Amino acid sequence: MHLTIFGTPVINTLLRAGSIAFLKLAGWRIEGTLPADARKCVLIAAPHTSNWDLPYTLMTAFVLRLNVYWMGKASIFRPPFGPVMRWLGGIAVQRDQSNNLVAASAAALKAAHGTVQLIVPPEGTRSKTTQWRTGFYYIALAAEVPIQLAFMDYTHKRAGLGPVFQPTGDIERDMRDIKAFYAPFRGKNAQQFDAG
């Protein structure tokens, strides 16, 4: 995994202080802590319905002292923003090409040293979708790491970490349980999120 803003000591400290101050002034409450057994995990972030999710997610990660990497569509990594997006923890994903993203992501997680959380939004898009993608589940299964359930609720201005979920291999049952956790949360554009 490449060096990110989360691994840059002085800047990380300054941005953590700034994130705490901004979120407090904006009325947001950050909840949860990263358990020891999820220091290396797939972190699913939902609901994902707006471009505002990225800055709020990054600020939440600073507050919770996470070391996150996140997947984003390749177009946001084009010059001149590419290096900045990668420094913010971004990993470009070519949606239009058939590649083995699950295997590559699992291998990167296994090879990573220390604490690392790979953020994968289950919807795979900010647009309205009724079907969740399962890549996050198979990445966790292949990497033999847990899934950390993270949330952002714009209605109640709450964000943070929920329970850690250990995938069993029974994807239908596991997805039902995961979606049940997300049912009460509302994204910025609530009509675009369906945890059903």
Please give the number of β-strands.
7
Q: How does the helix and strand content classify structurally?
A: alpha/beta
User: What's the total helix number?
Assistant: 6
Q: Quaternary state, please?
A: single chain
Number of domains: 1
Instruction: Write down the overall geometry.
Output: globular
H/E element sequence: HEEHEHEHEHEEH
Strand composition percent? 15-25%
The largest sheet, given as strand count, sense and whether it forms a barrel, is:
7 strands, mixed
Helix content: 25-40%
Major sheet strand order = 1-7-6-2-5-3-4
Calculate the terminal CA-CA distance, rounded to whole Å.
Answer: 34 Å
Rg measurement, Å:
16 Å
Q: Catalogue the unreliable spans.
A: none
- Averaging pLDDT over every residue, what do you get? 87
Topology:
Elements: H1 9-25, E1 29-31, E2 40-46, H2 53-63, E3 68-73, H3 82-87, E4 90-93, H4 101-111, E5 116-119, H5 135-143, E6 147-153, E7 158-165, H6 171-182
Parallel strand pairs: 1-7, 2-5, 2-6, 3-4, 3-5
Antiparallel strand pairs: 6-7
Helix pairs in contact: 1-2, 4-5
